[in-house]
Structure formats: C-alpha cells, structure tokens
Amino acid sequence: MLRRRHKKPDALQGTLDLLVLRTLRRGPHHGYGIAADIQSISDDILRVEEGSLYPALHRMEHLGWITAEWQTTANNRRARLYKLTRAGQKRLDEERAKWDQLTKAVGKVLRFA
User: Fold this and answer.
1) 69 closest CA partner among 18, 24, 29, 17
2) 92: CATH
3) SS3 68
4) Contacts of 20 (CB under 8 A, 6+ apart)
5) Average pLDDT of every residue of the chain
6) How far is CA 28 from its chain centroid?
7) Predicted TM-score (pTM) of this structure
8) Does residue 106 sit within a domain?
C-alpha cells in the first residue's frame, strides 16, 4: 500500500518570507533592491534569485502582507515599489518568533547531542 506524503510548508519559502518582510520593515523597496540588501547584509552568503523572489513578492502581495505600486526610479526606469502592511508587520513578528524558537532548539541540539 502506498502512503501519501503530506506536503509540509517549505522551510526555505518561510525563510525567504521572513527575510523579505524584515528588509521591507526598513522601508519601501523594489525587487532588485530587496535582493541586493539581503545579499549585502548577509556578506554575500544569501543570494535571492529572481525566480524565487518575484513569485514570493506576488504571493505576499496577494496575502495582504505587502503592497506594490509602479514608480519611476532615479535612472528613469519603471519598477514596482513594495511596502510592508500592518498585516505584513504582524506576520513578520510571528515568523520572527518562530525563527527564534527554531534556532534556539537547533543550538541546543548542536551543544548537547
């Protein structure tokens, strides 16, 4: 008999949400700027590819965690500017608490196992 596996939420997707929401907490940003900030702040360890970032931004916009509007950038290009909403701030707080709990648990295992 074959067992069906229940699909668990992708931990990386949750981490990407956390990183994007935290970046937007600093202020509105366009997609490229979000990716560049994450890469820069992480000392080039974390790189967010377009193929992951833009679907995540669209999903978060659909969920009401962020808003987006078209604006013209300093170099005269049109770009969508993303902004954190109150619902997004609430989600960020929830995800940050989960992240803190997870990293604390992993730290314990690494010290004592």
Assistant:
1) 29
2) 1.10.10.10
3) strand
4) 34, 38, 53, 56, 57, 60, 66
5) 90
6) 14
7) 0.83
8) yes
